[in-house]
Amino acid sequence: MKRHSCGYKQNLRKGLWSPEEDEKLLNYITKNGHGCWSSVPKLAGLERCGKSCRLRWINYLRPDLKRGAFSSEEQNLIVELHAVLGNRWSQIAARLPGRTDNEIKNLWNSCIKKKLMKKGIDPITHQPLSEVDKETNISDNHNSTSFSSKTNQDFFVKQTSDFSKYSAFQKQESNSVSLDNSLSSMIPTQFNINIDGSVSKARFETQVCVKPSIILLPPPGNTSSTIDHVKVTEPNWETNCRTTSHRDNPGLEEMKWSDEYLNESLFSSPVYVKSEMDFNSNIAFPWSQSQACDVFPKDLQRMAFSFGQTL
DNA sequence: AATTTCTACAACCGCTTGCTT
DNA sequence: AAAGCAAGCGGTTGTAGAAAT
Fold this sequence. Notes:
Keywords: DNA-binding, Nucleus, Repeat, Transcription, Transcription regulation. It is found in: Nucleus. This is AtMYB50. This protein has helices at about 20-30, 40-45, 50-60, 70-85, 90-95, 100-120, 130-135, 140-145, 150-165, 165-175, 180-185, 235-240, 260-265, 275-280, 295-300, and strands at about 190-195, 200, 225, 230-235, 240-245, 255, 270-275. The chain has about 300 residues and is mainly alpha-helical. The strands form 3 sheets. A 3-stranded antiparallel beta sheet has the order 5-6-7. A two-stranded antiparallel sheet has the order 1-2. A two-stranded antiparallel sheet has the order 3-4. The protein starts with 18 loop residues before the first helix and ends in a 9-residue tail after the last helix. The relative contact order is 0.10. The structure holds a DNA duplex (21 and 21 nucleotides).
């Protein structure tokens, strides 16, 4: 169904907001809340469309916004989150209090992307550029492993094909073809599993440790799925897990598989930190760098690349 | 000093999603 | 089930100011 662009009728103002307009919108929402956005401009005395008002409020006027430059910690977190979530800016923003998706997207496109490229890291796959080039045609790779696919099926296809990359990677590692020798000596057995299922050596900016926090758990209610040679059986949350308060962060719940379940499971030592938000998206979150742990390749190999809801 | 190019970021556009009727 | 609407989302464009020429 074809829709008209906002403000198609009348001569509503477009473009940059004046301080007077900001003041009107701020005053109105502070007193009354926004309610239905389409009625806000009229009630606030603005010649704008509701959509424009909403955007202005969300991205600029909201009192809880953190203004100013991004700290290096924030930038590192964005890179880590992007490695897991791809261009899901709103989900990334949800993990950075006071920052908007628009702001993060702009930062990514104007700054972080270039920094990564400069360091030889592909900003889409988060793998070293040269390594990606060697193994696959990079332009093809960008199309096939971007985060745009939306179905489980697409995700499975990617994971299945990328699962085999682990063997190649492992071989490469055993031949001491290190991606970064200095880092190698510091964090010898840490790896990233990218969301597309590929494996790369962890480096500080993109570190997503493979502690089971990286496992994408099947949504409750899914039965099972066979991914090529790996059969993933539904982990039943209620009966197969036990929940305790997380050791280092009492605000989070730590879920562990029961011993009984572990004995039959493909997962090596599945533990992950669950928050409400993570649970909703069915994406387990990377642990912070300090909590990263070593994982032996044999454990990595045993990990099932699992499946998520709509990715 | 004037002009052009670059950069950062604000805002827009159109599609999708979810809810209601 | 279909239509309509509001809100959310991410890609793209526009623009002001800075930097380069």
